[in-house]
Design goal:
The complex is a heterotrimer of chains A (about 475), B (about 220) and C (about 475).
Chain A (H helix, E strand, L loop, with lengths): L14 E4 L2 H9 L4 E3 L10 H9 L3 H14 L3 E7 H5 L5 E4 L11 H13 L6 H9 L4 E4 L5 E2 L11 E7 L4 E6 L15 H25 L2 E2 H8 L11 H18 L2 H12 L6 H14 L9 E7 L2 E6 L7 E4 L4 E4 L12 E2 L3 H4 L21 H12 L2 E10 L5 E7 L1 H7 L5 E6 L7 E7 L3 H13 L4
Parallel strand pairs in A: 1-2, 4-5, 6-8
Antiparallel strand pairs in A: 3-7, 3-9, 7-8, 10-11, 10-14, 11-12, 13-18, 15-16, 17-18
Helix pairs in contact in A: 2-15, 3-11, 5-6, 5-7, 7-9, 8-9, 9-10, 14-15
Chain B lengths: L1 E4 L3 H5 L3 E8 L3 E6 L2 E6 L9 E3 L11 E5 L2 E4 L2 E9 L12 H9 L18 H15 L4 H11 L6 H11 L5 H6 L7 H5 L5 H14 L4
Chain C lengths: L2 E7 L5 H12 L4 E8 L2 H9 L13 E7 L2 H16 L17 H8 L3 E4 L3 H13 L3 E4 L6 H14 L3 E2 L5 E4 L2 E4 L6 E8 L2 H13 L4 E6 L12 H12 L5 E6 L4 H12 L5 E5 L7 H12 L9 E2 L11 E6 L2 H11 L4 E5 L3 H4 L10 H12 L3 E9 L8 H14 L4 E6 L8 H10 L2 E4 L2 H13 L1
Parallel strand pairs in C: 4-5, 5-6, 9-10, 9-11, 11-12, 14-15, 14-16, 16-17, 17-18
Antiparallel strand pairs in C: 1-3, 2-3, 7-8, 13-18
The chains are: A alpha+beta (about 475), B alpha+beta (about 220), C alpha/beta (about 475).
Chain lengths: ~475, ~220, ~475
Amino acid sequence: MAEPMQHDLLHEPTVATAGVELLDAALDAQLVPRLAAAWQPPPERSVDALTRVLADPRRPAANAEAVRRMLAAGAVLVDVAPAAEVLGHHRGQFCHAGPPIGWDRASGPLRGALIGATLLEGLADDPAGAERLLASSTVDWAPCHSLGGVGPMAGVVSPSMWVFVLRDEAHDRTSWCSLNEGLGAVLRYGAYAPPVIERLRWMSTVLGPALRGALRSRGPVDIASLIGQMLHMGDEGHNRNRAGTLMLLRDLLPDLATSVPSDQLADIARFVGGNDHFFLNLVMPACKLATAAAAGIPGCSVVTAMARNGTDFGIQVSGCGDTWFTGPAAVPRGLYLGAYGPDDANPDIGDSAITETAGIGGFAMAGAPAIVRFVGGTVADALRTTREMYEITLAENPAYSLPILDFRGAPTGIDATLVLRTGVLPQINTGIAGRVAGTGQVGAGLVEPPVECFTAAVDALAYGAQP
Amino acid sequence: MMAASIAVAPVLTGPRRPVEVALVTPSAMYLAAGDDVVCLATPEAVRVPCAVVVRRLPVVSVGTIGSIGGGELTLGTFTDRVGRWWRPPRPSLDPASAGDLLAALDRCEVVLGIDLLGRGPGLTPFGDDVLAGALVTLRALASPRASSLASAVVGQLHRTTVVSAALLRHAARGECIPELAAVLAPSAAALPALLAVGHSSGRGLAQGVRAGLSGGVR
Amino acid sequence: MTVRRVETRRAYRDSVALMQLSARLQALPGVSAALVAMATDVNVELAVGMGFPAPAQPRPDDMLIAVAAANQSTVDEAFSFVDGELAAPAPKQAAGTGDVPPRTLGSAVRRAGAQVALVSTPGRYAFLDAMDALDAGASVMIFSDNVPVADEVVLKERAAAAGLLVMGPDCGTAILGGVGLGFANVVQPGPVGIAAASGTGAQHVMSLLDAAGVGISHCLGLGGRDLSAPVAGRSTVAALDLLDADPATELILVVSKPPAPEVAEKVQSYAARLATPVHFALLGPDQPDLTEAVAGVLAQLGRAVPAPWPVWRPTAPVPPRRGRLVGLFCGGTLRDEAAVIVGTAPADLVDLGADEFTRGRPHPMIDNSSRLDRIAAAARDPDCGVVLLDVVLGHAADPDPAGSLVPALRNLADAGVPTVVSLTGTAGDPQDRDRQAEALRAAGAAVFLSNAEAARYAVELAHG
């Protein structure tokens, strides 16, 4: 039985329009309230696919369910543990950021990080030996995403590294992410010099166990709640995590103080407090829990992952399960550290675009005016960026609200069909890795996914669409 | 182009005759042609049942004489024609569904005080707004008391202002502003918007709705 | 020697804006031919047909610019004029506060709280925009044409499930609570609710009712194919429900081009169950014409039928001459009605609003230029007995159709060809119906408010 007709239609309706301006002028002449869409045609090659996807009778309910799940997902830090324990990995098994890729096509930073991880695990004595081993394919690596986790930049995780373990009780799901190493020459940017490896060893032997001890004594930390708070404190959860990091330190410090020796405590407090991005590695798995909850719904056009491996940019959409839709990763536009310039930059890399997939990061730029110049813009640009993202998303997340937009919820749930129809690509805030293996971070800036990812995803949705 | 209420179609489309500017506010202007009153209103103004919506008000002062009729209005250098017609809301209400609304009206602070009578910068005396609210409500309920109250009120219109008298005539036919129609949908959620109308008019109308619903009208 | 230059740009403008741009280019001194259009196959063909070389790898979402002129500098000037126009900032975009316009119709519906969405994007995309608006909770009027019938059915099914109405595709007019959408006449509120699968048909019956002093509650468009077998009257049924529930509607008039018999039967039996009486004006042989249908409505309302319907006869009539009846229409339904009346008499009736005549040219209801050439040809044609034209007034239509037609009509009168005009419009229309009629009459035309009467008179003049 149909719902009753909307009789409002017959009482001086307000009109939304798309198309010929002459018809808008006729409405203006009658003093009719109206709003015109700034319409542009979708890419010609996708028109038929878009038509099939929008006609799919499952889509409206599937998309509504996807965003309902995304907004309902929780994220609580429940443990800190070695990756081997969490993933059941053995020596010679690695994870990395982005869609799957082999050694031959791997970029400098990913190669560097894999070399570093090989050295860390004692699988080779020197970088040359590590490279030979990696090229020989006797070791194997898989995307973090394929194991329910995420990794920033190169995202390389080896069995002896420690990871944060987060739970979404609402959907009975676990996610994980490595511990953040700090800025500069670090493994995730492809650096593998001895100090890098030493720091990783300290993280596995001192930092990880200390955090685990403090957490077990304190009890779980609600990361989703901290994200909601950091967005009110000038962080956007991707390129600015300062408030989140300090709140985490605040929450853990009393239990750290009672569980680790005082010299270690000072090192840990200095390490965490001195690394504004420490909390990024908690934001990311929290976002992964939200997007994973929305995954795998037939007919659903919501994007559930955006990730880069330094060569390819890949996305996943809910209605197509774990399939990656890829295109060439672009070099971010941004500011460079010291004497580095665009020629030193590697194409976009890392799973950290999971933050934008879940509605924060670049999507919450309006809430992070302090970093607009760092990513090359004005405060008005930041406001405009977030407002544009509402045009390609299906929901607003009340748990992640933006005070400057009158506490409007962050734009959440990218609809791949809206990206194609509007030509507005998701805005990603990102760090920039050096092109040459071993360099580390060279800058930070803004980047968008290649449109091919969305074209391919919509083609696949169209192929599986119900008439 | 003007968007005119069908309630004033006889004045607008009848033979051309003089019209006088009776009252000017920042967003609306009342024009009198004999007993007929037309409200020239900007799109932002409260949409009274005798409103004729124009993009901008003509710059004329009280007492200016113009002409109205034949689908056209002229005031000084201002001339405009009707580009579309609209029907003012005339709500109808099932008494059985009004329980929640009455409870909400009892909860909300509709202050009825003798001190408000005829005071404040509102266009209509508070008491008249209460009467208008009651009239529209009784019409919406199709109550037999509607006609007796309407004739009592219309017979006494010489006692109030020209503008208020005109609006009471519309109320006596059950015509009202959209904010009041929304409340009588019925919807308690629409009350805040009604209460925000004018200086005290919305509160007066709400008071009248309560009286009309609770049988407090004699 | 002529210089020709064809290029494409990554830009989009709506078809009316493009035609206006083409017209402005053509008006530049020295320009002999110009076309600015989206680079669809049809438009590329059009450019080639105009003598331009085909552009390299045109993409349909590119803009095609083709200019021919006597010399290179004029061509260059024309291109920099177009580029200047394309570079001009989009209006109504607030700067500084980071405000962004809605990018999709669905977004515009949600932001404005709109109850209805008006889609006039090219037909290839109209489905996407209409579905988006339905998803956002608004009823939709699809002004666009060239929407596949299967897509129309999908939209109407989705709308029915959501309790919404789809008006269209190819829906030219609607009036909702006095608000005119598309080509809309200014009508007074009144007791008659119209559901129309024919835009100009609806405008015509409204203009006759207006002349009889009877107003309209609403006019709901259905789309020209709604009563066809595949669409099966889906919007007709929805519109009948809406009008039946509307307290202002005392009588419903359904107007349609010839329907599929089984659909007509289904809709008629559905209508018979409603509380509100329903009249049908379904065009076709052996069916009452629109004027007769309106007379039936007036009779049911107890209102007098104007006798005669308004007519403006020339002071010095052009004597009749035997010959072919040349009908140049902008309303498809008005043409079809005339064709039924003309029957088998020698006649050539064209609907210049049909797709094949509006490619790259404005609709004759907006701009008469496509008719002026044919009127001039008729004046030179010794076989032409009479010219029959329709003129349709209202919002969005040509602001002064008589202005451009009068010189052409004088030319016809000078050539001894009588002209008959079917004028559709109301007293309140922005063009001022009576002034338009007077101007056409002064140019020698016999002007009828009833299209059927105009057609009969034209037949009489040409065939005796």
